[in-house]
Amino acid sequence: MAEWGICTTVKAPLIEVEAFVAHHLSLGASQIWLHFDDPDDPAIPAISSVLGVTAVRCDADYWVDNGGKRPPRIEGRQSANIRRVYKSGLLPWVAHIDIDEFIHPVTHVGAALDQIDADDPIVRMRPWEALYAPVTDFPFAPGLFRAPIRPATVPLLFDRLFGDYSPLMERGSLSHAAGKAFYRSGVEGLRPKIHTARLKGRPSTGYPFNDDLRLLHFHAQNKTAWINALPRRLKSGSYGGAPAMADFLAHATADQINAFYDAVMMNNAKWEQSCRKRDLLIEVDLNLPAKVANLRQP
After folding, report:
1. What is the SS3 assignment for 207?
2. What is the pTM of this model?
3. pLDDT for residue 229 is more than 90
4. Residue 142 has pLDDT above 90, yes or no
5. How far apart are CA 11 and CA 57, in angstroms?
6. Are 9 and 37 in contact (CB under 8 A)?
7. Dmax over Cα atoms in the chain, in whole Å?
8. What's the mean per-residue pLDDT of the chain?
9. Fewer Cβ neighbours under 10 Å: the N or C end of the chain?
């Protein structure tokens, strides 16, 4: 089967890093590049010894060697990191995903990549957003994941699901609906970015989602964590692709933010079956505690 690897730009608790690494190694990743945005991150010593993991300290020397200047926005640093890995050409396929994103293949990642036409340089993964789940003592809990519900595709379901908040939910999800992608190594003129790439200076288009490769995104499964992170996300422009939603959240009261989250992120029997029938809702348990326990074995 095709060899593949992933890189990510990291600033997260060690347990989340371990879960991310353990899961993707269990899927068969040949290499995982962890680019630590904080070069003094305490997680680095603990994860560096794991076979198949390269921990990269993104310190001043790193940025001098990779363009000479640290990009001020996280998106710029993420793009720089995946381009560095891509240029190395060490594996046939590489992807950049975030620490709260977990590939969930229908069969095997390598088998899915083997089926890609030899002329296709990009394989896109559809995002599935984790709905609310009660907090557990382990991050990234089992639960329900919903694909973006697009108004143009399923208008009646879109309106029934989001109700009064429909004007704010054009993307059909709270976070990005663009998904992430694998990039074939050695393609002339390919310049990877966060969600997709540029080919010979132009945006890559015409590549549909590959439904054998799902991407589970734990963007807001924990309601309290999402609310606590909201000021930072609004300031950084993380919701730039959803300006109406961003403007609402920036000016909403605490009660309004609570009501919004409950309406768009809580499972509701009124639309659950409709989503399931259309293959827009899945239930997944990644068994992460057991994978992390196995990772920690000497």
Report:
1. coil
2. 0.96
3. yes
4. yes
5. 11
6. yes
7. 54
8. 95
9. C
Q: Is the CB of residue 145 less than 8 Å from the CB of residue 128?
A: yes
**Coil, strand, or helix at residue 118?**
coil
What is the spatial distance between Cα 124 and Cα 182, in angstroms, rounded to a whole number? 6
Residue 295 φ/ψ region, left for φ over 0, alpha for ψ in the -120 to 50 degree band, beta for the rest: alpha
Confidence of residue 206 (pLDDT cuts 50, 70, 90): confident
Residue 5 in 3-state DSSP?
Answer: strand
- What contacts 136, CB < 8 A, 6 or more positions away? none
Long-range contacts of 286-289 (CB under 8 A, 24+ apart): 286/23, 286/102, 286/104, 286/140, 286/142, 286/216, 288/19, 288/22, 288/23, 288/138, 288/139, 288/140, 289/138
H-assigned helices in 49-203: 60-65, 74-88, 109-114, 155-162
CA–chain centroid gap for 176, Å, is 9
Q: How far is CA 3 from CA 6, 66, 185, 229, in A?
A: 11, 25, 11, 35
Full set of structural domains in the chain with CATH:
4-295 (3.90.550)
Mean pLDDT to the nearest integer, 70-96: 95
Q: What is the mean pLDDT of residues 250-259?
A: 97
Angle at 128 between CA 108 and CA 272, to 5 degrees: 120
Distance between CA 111 and CA 173 in Å, rounded?
29
Please name the residue that has the structure tokens 């382990």.
Answer: 138
Give pLDDT, residue 204: 85
- Mean pLDDT for the stretch of residues 231-254: 92
> Any idea what the Cα angle at residue 5 is, between residues 193 and 45, rounded to 5°?
100
Q: Answer whether residue 278 shows pLDDT above 90.
A: yes
Q: How far apart are CA 273 and CA 277, in angstroms?
A: 6
Distance spanning both ends of the chain, measured CA to CA: 28
